[in-house]
Amino acid sequence: MGRTNNFKHPMQLTFHGGAGEVTGSCFLLDTGTTRFLVDCGMFQGDREADMKNVQFPTFDPTRIDFVLLTHAHIDHSGMLPRLAARGFRGPIYATQATIDLLEVMLRDSAHIQAKEAEWESRHPQRSRDGGPAEILYDMEDAEAALSLMHPVQYGTQVLLRDGMSCRFLDAGHILGSAIIEVWAGGRKIVFSGDLGQPGRPILRSPTPANEADVVLIESTYGNRLHKNLDDTLDEFVSVIEDTLHRKHGNVIMPAFTVGRTQEILYLLIDLTRQRRLSNLRVYVDSPMALAATEITMRHIELFNHEAQALVAWGHERRRDMPDIRFVQAVEESMAINEIRSGAIIISASGMCDAGRIKHHLRHNLHRPECSIIFTGFQAEGTLGRRLVDGARLVRLFGEEIPVRASIHTIGGLSAHADQAALLEWLGHFRHAPPHLYVIHGEAATAMEFAQAVRDRLGWTAVTPAMHSTVQI
Hints:
Elements: E1 12-17, E2 26-30, E3 35-38, H1 47-55, E4 66-68, H2 74-77, H3 80-85, E5 92-95, H4 96-122, H5 139-146, E6 149-152, E7 158-159, E8 165-170, E9 178-184, E10 187-191, E11 214-218, H6 229-246, E12 251-254, H7 260-273, E13 281-285, H8 287-297, H9 305-316, E14 323-327, H10 330-336, E15 344-347, H11 357-364, E16 371-374, H12 383-388, E17 393-396, E18 399-402, E19 406-409, H13 419-426, E20 435-439, H14 443-457, E21 469-471
Parallel strand pairs: 3-4, 4-5, 5-6, 10-11, 11-20, 12-15, 12-16, 13-14, 13-15, 16-19
Antiparallel strand pairs: 1-2, 1-21, 2-3, 7-8, 8-9, 9-10, 17-18
Helix pairs in contact: 4-5, 4-8, 7-9
């Protein structure tokens, strides 16, 4: 697409989530004749996050014409069923890989809410708020949202309405993740979505964009640099070897079911191929993980060359592969907790606030011979964040659990671009965007990255507030 024309209609952009925080991404653009969302994510973290979810949406869903979805992670997609339950009936545009993942993830989200509400109704004295949680949506709502999905291919121009169009580019964050370029009202608006770190395992590096009137860029790690991959893998191998063979404990790895779990498996297989690790016994304990991994393997065309080569090696040398077991039944999951040593247990949720990981932490956190490895971002208010910040006592299922296991944060495996990579991606724009908004970062981090943009690129950068509206 060429540069936008000079006639520009007045337009409003409202930040309904992902502003001054990392979760709940949701951006409403109103051209005067068309209203659409980019992302519709769930807030994650503490009681305040729960309340924001209950209050969502603060706009009229029946007046939204369509949704553009950057990727499948729940903090970007998880409120689509609630949007449908409140009357939204327009199309939701996403890549096919994203849609395939959402077929599993949105149903799983509805299922988890039903189960947690049931548990809290039976144990009101042990629930977070002293009573059953409000279900944000049910399975019928999830199915309604899934019925609205429309697949989009990377690099293909998609006509929307009122002369608007969009194009999805590979963001390199998780399978199917996208940067979204939108042409509307005589302007070009670029939504970065979540950008991957260049040169990561499995996926290709993010695709550059080169021109825009308005840019919204994530800043999850906008205030720091990741450790390089070689040093990261040295640390990863060292923790696993020390825990399994010297201390004779278990390694517990909280991981997002989509993206991070597959990347960890890739690394364990690749390190086995290199003979840096051996005789691994790996339990992937997330009912959704098997389906997500199978979907990942259906989209090998999205892998980078190294990942495609590793897949070929795995097919040829099956007997040399690690012993990887996907756990489905509750009884199997409970049996893992009887294992005292020699196991790598990968389980969701990635921030430790829900799902089976809480049970594995309950059985291993108090054991000094065990290790907990965090490889992803831990939002404020989550159990994962408290552990990373050094909590010596945590509450799980109404019990106080002492933290004696060693806690390791291996940031070099992050699926998010660090400050240098974010600045490098912005550096591909031929001209400074007249409007640049720094989003999807904790408030202090977003402000620090905005200052880095001013200092390094000489551009104006704004950190918007939640529910603020700007004219563009």
